[in-house]
Amino acid sequence: MTERTVTTSGTGSTAAQPDIAEVRLWVAGRDDVAEIAHERARDTEASLRTALSAADVPEDCIRRTDAQLEDRDNGFEIHTDDPEYRAEFSMVVDCVPEQADDIVGAVLDAGDGSGIERISFDVGDEARMRLGEEALDDAMTVARRKAEAIAAAEGLTVGEVLEVTTDNMPSGMESIVDDALGSSESGFHPNPVEIEASVEATFELQDGD
Length: 209
What we know:
By secondary structure, this protein is of the alpha+beta class. It has 3 helices and 8 strands; from the N terminus they run E-E-H-E-E-H-E-H-E-E-E.
């Protein structure tokens, strides 16, 4: 006897407030001598690290991720009236969302020698796993309800799940870029991070009661 089945799909989602933040920033130094430009960038970095430490950001949460030295011939942000060389360090600060405002303030206080590239808010691995499981549960509930509606129309009932494929969809991690920062006086109020999941499930069909 041919096995009777029905295949349906479902999508579920859950959300939670961010519990981690990542601030990407840069520091720079300019001079007509390459070594001095590099030294000025290092001085700005050191001053910024001191300010971040005063904001209770642990040193091991501050990382330099890249360093570049440009001159007028190959520099993207060097104008004809600027010094010959521009040294730039890219940095990342890992923190909790409540610290993002203080970090931005420290960068803005450093003046033209530093700036914010992007601020991202997200949830940690443990929370992401929990949210993903909840989203999958919701998606399976939707898929089963669809299967039950189809089965009922034929006078049948839904039995066991025979096969399931899943697809965890991208999260709604919120990112704020430099142009949108403006003043940090009002602080940041990130939106909840949403985790979505979709499933395609095949259910066994049984004779109705």
